[in-house]
Write a structure and sequence with these properties.
By secondary structure, the chain is α+β, with helices and mostly antiparallel strands. It is 24% helix and 25% strand. The relative contact order is 0.18.
């Protein structure tokens, strides 16, 4: 499902759609609505009830030498080079692996919502800005911070930068009295999504509304596809369809 975010009231519409499970990509909000699958579930961390575990405190401590810089949503080549290294190391077979510079500029700058970038840099030894080790595109909502996309130096595995970015945004949200940090979609049984279930408490969006993820759900396997009712169609007299009658795959 796709919805265009209007230039005139983009922030308000983005707030409302995020609360019901949509995610933002540039000026489009989208939500998976597959006929035979309900695996994608929106996830968010409730800030007020979140208590850091011992391991999470260690992650924050390991990255105490990093400085947080809030910058306008303007793309830089330094960010893009870090993104390319991250994609080639972690998602070389993914759909974003072919992202070029104009695509990155559009991802960061083509929007009318309240958004910014957070850069994490090593504390400089001189007057320079320090090395960029992680970056995240963040939407500011009426009820929280939404992590649109994050990337980091793949050679610094010991820092657990992916977890650090989330934990630091819990710290930021608490400091400005925002109740939630939105983490995007969680898919039961997905190895690439499993890290989100390690954050606790965590809420997921169910048909009846947001609810705390249970211990059973944290260890759940991927749900079985929903089998739609069978429909008998007599296509014996049907003419073959022309290819250009159908929209391109992936387009709204």
């Amino acid at each position: 499902m796709f919805a265009h975010l209007p230039l005139s009231d983009g922030p308000t519409v983005n707030d409302s759609l995020t609360q019901v499970g949509f995610r933002r990509s540039q000026n489009i909000a989208y939500r998976p609505a597959c006929e035979t699958c309900r695996a994608c579930q929106s996830a968010r961390a409730p800030v007020a009830d979140y208590e850091l575990s011992r391991s999470e405190r260690r992650v924050l401590a390991r990255n105490q030498d990093l400085e947080r810089h809030l910058v306008e949503s303007e793309a830089t080549l330094e960010q893009f080079e870090l993104l390319r290294r991250y994609l080639m190391a972690r998602h070389a077979d993914g759909g974003m692996a072919e992202m070029a510079w104009p695509d990155y500029v559009a991802m960061v700058e083509d929007t009318a919502v309240r958004t910014h970038l957070i850069e994490y840099r090593r504390r400089p030894e001189d007057d320079g800005p320090g090395d960029l080790v992680a970056c995240v595109l963040v939407d500011v909502l009426a009820d929280g911070l939404s992590l649109v996309y994050s990337f980091y130096d793949p050679t610094l595995a010991s820092r657990s930068l992916g977890s650090f970015v989330i934990l630091d945004h819990l710290v930021q949200a608490r400091a400005i009295d925002l109740p939630f940090v939105y983490l995007g979609y969680w898919v039961p049984g997905s190895e690439k999504m499993a890290y989100k279930a390690r954050f606790s408490p965590l809420e997921i969006l169910k048909p009846g509304g947001w609810a705390l993820m249970s211990a059973r759900e944290r260890g759940a396997r991927p749900p079985r596809p929903i089998t739609p009712p069978s429909v008998d169609l007599d296509l014996s007299d049907a003419e073959p369809a022309e290819l250009d009658e159908f929209p391109a795959a992936g387009k709204p």
